[in-house]
Target: Lipoprotein LipO
Amino acid sequence: MTLVLALTACGKNSTGNSNTSTDVTGTPTNTDNNNPGNSNEVAKPKQITFMVNGTLITKENGQDEVVKAYEEKTGIKLIVNQPAHNEYYEKVDLAFATGEIPDVLLLSTDMYVTYAVNGALYDITDLYEKSEVKNNMVDQSIVDALRLDGRLYGLPVERGNGPITYVRGDWLEKLNIDVPTNYDEFIEMLRKFRDEDPDGNGEKDTIPFTAPGLMGINYVREFYQDANPGFYKKDGKWVDGMTEPEMKAALQRMQDAYKEGLIDKEVVTNKTSTCRDKFYAGNVGVFNYWAGLWNQTLQNNIEANVPEAKVLPIPAIAETKYIERVAPPVSITTKCENPEGVFKYFLEFMLDCGEGQTLFTHGIEGLMYEMKDGKMVKLPSMQDPNTTFDKVFMSGSLSITKYDDPYEYPDIIMNSLAMFQKDAVQDVLLPASEVLTKYMSELDSIKSEIIAKVVYGEATVDEGLNEYTQKAKGYVDQILADINK
Model:
């Protein structure tokens, strides 16, 4: 079974519902725009409209200055449409519904599949295959994860990344515990966190393991292992993971661990922010969260309360792998009048391993960073001078190209990323399906209810799965019939 889990040459090399499959049902509609010409000369657009969420630098933090710098470097006017971050995807749907469609935009992976299959996104496959960007890529699988029937309708601009398991390293040292390498060792570690007062307050009040709910398999890796409550490909066919044998074993693991007091009693109602706050307070032993920058953030925040705390990322245990999400793509729409020009002067420019990538990663020298003794030093943020500037759009630590990044990220960030990437499998896209979209919310509610009931001990595993079949079979049969046709 598979888990569901540019314009200038490069410098030297620098350091959800999950499924694993490369097939996607449905062939996106081609338009007259989807056939690149044979000419090597690409007309430069006079302007480009770009719709993006809060991952792009805000106006308060220097967006206008970056846009001006882009215009000076390319001679192209860039018009940014940046709705409020929490309203972004609603605004994207509205834009397509009203016809107010930008040339290029950032999409969620679900939206990417839907709009590609509906013919709203430009097929960039031929442009990509002939581009310098392809040669610049560190790992083609990151791009290939976005292929629909072998075709590309967008490009990632950074890695998808994903959660890694963070353990209180100082607790391991205090209790003389080795880093766990398999599930049995992992459970034994949690038991010692529960029983041996690792925080030293004289009370049996530690939370061995916390997570934001039980449906997100990225946050409960050690318990799910090779199981997945979502839809995934098995032997060439899409299946409902809730009815597979692996799910039965995963539910039993979670039920047993919860009964032993190894899993946070509030796990079902936790949000990610709740888990972070509990971790920062210093009484949580294990928390699965994003690799990389978050390792530094978790460490900084917990140190404010527990100065001796050590946030230690660990390799995936033997029974499982971490999951790298499919990176959200930047896509050119079929409403764009000059898609070849937008690809060359916008997408390729951002991923050129040179001045374009530096601009969209680190910003403007003298405003967002300065060079000292050949090294990049970040300057205070324009929006909050008490913090240093982070990024414009792309994180250099998650670069997908051979970009020779002039900024040296702290080891705590790069080491956790390297560990995650070594032990991760690439997630893939679910197929586009109106039936799946129609019933997914209701089906997820049923799954969440059943999983919680079983883990809390209100039903046996068999009772829970039987109840799931009774409540969900009608939805599941329709979905599987549609996505397997």
Summary: The first helix runs from residue 63 to 74. The longest strand covers residues 284-290. The two ends are 20 Å apart (CA to CA).
